[in-house]
Amino acid sequence: MARRSVVPPAVTRRGSVVELLHGVEVADPYRWLEDANSPETQEWLAEQHEHAARYFASIAPEPIRRRLAELMRTDEIGIPHERRGYYYFSRRLAYEQRYSICRRFGLDGPDEVLIDPSAISADPTIGIELREVTPDGALVCFLVRHGGEDEAEIRVVQVDSQRTIDSLPGLNRHFPSGSMTTPATTTLCGMTTGAAFDFIDSGRPVPRIATF
């Protein structure tokens, strides 16, 4: 294949920012790009977009699109939780947009879908996330996340009856670990033996344990 002649992008200015971290000088020449609203950054972004547009206009995009689709359409399975011979895990098949929560008996058993996100909402931006399973496998705790929000709803499903508890009285919504958000939060902090979950509500003056 002949090499295409492509005009290189505009040269990016290197700043002079140097920080002393633990006695070591660390240069950060592109710190100025962190200010997304500055006129210089906006001009830089426009130049990059223009350069990318020129390049992609010079090639046939369909073969690239097809190949990327082939590489990205793969089955994905999350880390399983083993409970009394059953494996509980998140799964997204190649043709699916969202993860389901499944279980499988043994390593070679068929997958059983416990929680289907489409049964919760037809909105493709609403996803579910497996959090924990009680030691006896009777209850599954999962999160419902709307779009890209950090905050998510805590829900619990009773596996045998397939009954879902949509809200847990006295508990707030959950924020993932490391979130910089400050409102009251509820976190799954551990489990009791048997069919119960322990939650800690950090929105209380004194953290409180609630058992479902």
Core attributes:
212 residues, alpha+beta, 5-stranded antiparallel beta sheet, 4-stranded antiparallel beta sheet, 3 helices, extended
Description:
- The protein is an alpha+beta fold and 212 residues long.
- The chain folds into two domains: 18-59, no CATH class; 76-211, Methylamine Dehydrogenase, Chain H, CATH 2.130.10.120.
- 17% of the residues lie in helices and 34% in strands.
- It has three helices and 14 strands.
- The strands form four sheets. Strands 3, 4, 5, 6 and 7 form a five-stranded antiparallel sheet that branches.
- It is extended, with a radius of gyration of 24 Å.
- It starts with 17 loop residues before the first strand and ends with a strand.
Tell me briefly what this model is.
The protein is an alpha+beta fold and 212 residues long. Helices cover 17% and strands 34% of the residues. It has helices at residues 39-57, 61-72, 117-120; strands spanning 18-21, 24-27, 76-77, 81-83, 86-92, 100-105, 111-115, 126-133, 139-146, 152-158, 163-165, 186-191, 197-201, 208-211.
